[in-house]
Design a protein that fits this description.
Layout: E1 11-19, E2 29-33, E3 37-41, E4 45-49, E5 52-58, E6 61-62, E7 70-74, E8 80-82, E9 87-99, E10 102-106, E11 113-117, H1 119-123, E12 139-141
Parallel strand pairs: 1-9
Antiparallel strand pairs: 1-4, 2-3, 2-5, 5-8, 6-7, 7-9, 10-11, 11-12
Length: 149
């Protein structure tokens, strides 16, 4: 009796994280596939994998800003086929989807303006940065709210 043993060579999945993620904010891409493989990818890199079909899914990530958080989403990706001895690649691109806003009431005016400031505007310590005081660069809404949001 002759017995033949063989094994498939691993393939490589190259995952690139791109887009608007600020420094210090990790991606969160979950790779699932052959042989119940499951791994969270937080930055660009390569994975040596058993050949098969792999899906990539993600959750939104956010900045941990104590004043105003920003939320980043990514564009869903098609499944990727990893083949023996080959390199498959995919790119997860993150985009700023929602940016929190610090809302401040300016009750000293008759119009009861409410001004909205981004994290950059709210934390600027540069005395020459006039974006903090420029209503064209901040969100503004005027009275008529009736005390309801």
């Amino acid at each position: 009796m002759i017995q033949v043993l063989y094994a498939l060579d691993a393939g490589t999945l190259e995952v690139t994280i791109s887009g608007d993620l600020p420094k210090g904010v990790d991606a969160a891409v979950l790779v699932k596939g052959a042989n119940n493989f499951e791994q969270l990818v937080t930055e660009s890199g390569t994975l040596d994998l058993t050949p098969g079909i792999y899906t990539l899914s993600s959750v939104s990530v956010r900045t941990d800003d104590p004043i105003v958080s920003e939320f980043y989403d990514w564009t869903p990706l098609a499944p990727v086929e990893v083949m023996s001895g080959m390199v498959a690649s995919t790119t997860a691109t993150y985009t700023l989807r929602r940016s929190g806003t610090l809302w401040l009431a300016q009750s000293a005016t008759r119009s009861n303006d409410v001004l909205g400031f981004s994290a950059k505007q709210a934390t600027s310590t540069d005395p020459t940065d006039d974006s903090r005081d420029d209503p064209r660069r901040s969100r503004r809404t005027s009275g008529g709210c009736g005390g309801r949001w």
